[in-house]
Design a protein that fits this description.
Layout lengths: L1 H5 L1 H47 L6 H28 L8 H19 L24 H24 L3 E7 L3 H11 L15 E12 L1 H11 L8 E11 L52 E12 L15
Antiparallel strand pairs: 1-2, 2-4, 3-4
Helix pairs in contact: 4-5, 5-7
């Protein structure tokens, strides 16, 4: 302290030098940190650029030709698949309006006879084609489309019957585009959404809504058969499955009927059995308990899409993109 008092000018100069050195050191450290970060970012960006240039999908003429070849191969496979599903799809024979109505009535009669004492049907059951039991389709084209739709519905009903369903409580279907177009024309509605499907579409989904009463085993069998082409030749997609117990509450005490125990006739004459060495099992005991829960059936709601592939499916990717 005495030296600083005696050499104030020199001490001030030394203090300025020390403070300046610290400030310069801080600035130098900060600049070096920024430089390191910038250098690392530059090197990383350079590596990314080099990786992109050497990648298989680099924008070069050679890679463009490879891409076009792969896309063309993919388009061919898709077209082959489209042609295959059209072949596997059941064919629809042309039919006129009167023939369709006769066919509908015949199938209603056949399914009622087949379901008699096996599966209960609604009183007004008509496969969802109730309107056509007393009116004719608007055109021969509509009758042909409806005929194919009816065949699929008939196959679906027989699948319910063969799987062991107890009853069909509800059956609804969506209208075809030709039906919607005819309805719009009748009502004078020019809404484009009510017209037939555009030719660019490759498939048509026909939605079926059904409520069944059946047991768990038949339900599992039905679900598996829906996707089996041997049992269901039409393309189907199960969109919704909702399962409930047939009864939501337990049985009342008055509903439970216990078996009546056997009573012996006091006037019956008992005969003594002859002595024998044969070992016989005892008589079965009287059943004094019965199951109360677990015997109820299931109420099942199914939303099923019947998928029909259109002719456009055979050439959906006929023109493969040629650009980059």
């Amino acid at each position: 302290m005495d030296w600083i008092r005696e050499n104030k000018p020199l001490a001030a100069i030394l203090g300025v030098i020390v403070v300046g050195s610290l400030a310069l050191g801080y600035l130098l450290f900060d600049a070096w940190s920024v430089y390191s970060e910038t250098k690392d970012g530059y090197l990383g960006l350079g590596n990314q650029v080099a990786g992109l240039k050497g990648a298989p999908l680099a924008p070069t003429e050679e890679n463009l030709k490879k891409k076009q070849a792969v896309v063309a191969e993919y388009a061919g496979l898709v077209n082959t698949l489209g042609k295959t599903v059209l072949i596997l799809q059941p064919k629809v024979e042309p039919i006129n309006d009167i023939e369709f109505q006769d066919k509908l009535k015949a199938k209603i009669s056949d399914i009622r006879k087949a379901a008699q004492s096996k599966m209960q049907l609604p009183a007004d059951f008509a496969f969802g084609f109730d309107d056509y039991t007393h009116t004719l389709p608007k055109s021969a084209a509509a009758a042909t489309e409806l005929s194919g739709y009816l065949d699929a519905m008939d196959k679906l009903m027989k699948l319910f019957l063969d799987s062991g369903a107890k009853s069909v409580d509800l059956l609804e279907r969506s209208k075809l585009p030709v039906e919607a177009a005819a309805t719009a024309a009748t009502q004078g509605n020019n809404n484009a959404g009510m017209q037939a499907q555009a030719s660019g579409n490759i498939l048509e989904k026909r939605q079926i809504s059904v409520v069944l009463t059946l047991d768990q085993g038949p339900l599992q069998l039905l679900i598996s058969r829906l996707t089996n082409p041997t049992d269901m030749p039409y393309f189907t997609s199960l969109r919704m499955l909702r399962i409930e117990n047939q009864r939501q509450d337990g049985p009342l005490r008055s509903e439970v009927q216990l078996p009546t125990p056997p009573t012996e006739d006091p006037n019956a004459v008992k005969t003594e059995e002859a002595a024998t060495d044969e070992i016989k099992p005892p008589a079965p005991a009287f059943v004094d308990a019965i199951p109360v829960f677990g015997n109820e059936l299931l109420k099942v709601r199914l939303e099923i899409d019947l998928v029909k592939f259109l002719d456009a499916a055979a050439g959906v990717t006929a023109q493969a993109p040629t650009g980059r």
